[in-house]
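User: Hi! I'm working on a homework problem where we have to compare a predicted structure to a textbook description. Could you give me the structure for the chain below?
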Amino acid sequence: LLSVDKPADTASCRLVHVLVSDFDAIFMNKVPQIEFEQRNGAYIIKAASLPRLVEKLMDPYYKDVEFSDVMFLCNNYYNQPSHLLELLSSYYDATKTQQDDVSTPSPMKPWQSQLAIRVLVVLKMWIMRVSDGSLRSDSEFMSRLRSFID
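Assistant: Happy to help. Predicted structure tokens:
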């Protein structure tokens, strides 16, 4: 995590650098929506659009251990919390089954329940890691969160 008494970690610097220096390239569609680079045998995100960053948050097999912390800690610098919640909600909505007969609900498929749980885990991690009160004081975020929970 970032701390005042120690220098910023490399993952934080990497994400902020990508967002600042590669903004035009990423968001003007001059590069693919996600690029990786290999470091110490692992593939880490070099550049990505916000939807692709969220896609990686939902991927339980993506192994960059610092990624979710950096994503949550830096989110407010380049994105509105309510927009990230909307993107997370879209993954949760994808788990809902289309039913012709509401009186006899069909069971979720394994991928649906795994994705629903992953969304809830990621949402909880985000709320727990951003404990500076900024989410609580964002009325639009709180309104969307209440709607999501209901």
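For your comparison, note the following. Residues 110-129 form the longest helix (20 residues). The two ends are 32 Å apart (CA to CA). Good luck with the assignment!
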